[in-house]
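A student in our group prepared the protein record below, which I am reviewing. Thanks in advance; the entry in question is below.
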Amino acid sequence: MSPIQLQQAVNISLTKQVQETAQAQAATMLEGFAKTQQNIQAAQAPHPSLGKVLDVKV
């Protein structure tokens, strides 16, 4: 294998590793966002009269 071919193979391998790491980090981040959204929705009770009355003054 020539030095140029070796360099290309190493570059491709490193690029694949970086891409896999980025995908894993993105998946972890999205899971965290989903858990946070679920916690926020579970913690907030709906207001009993929210959206039922509209006060307008002219």
Remarks:
- The chain is about 70% helix and 0% strand.
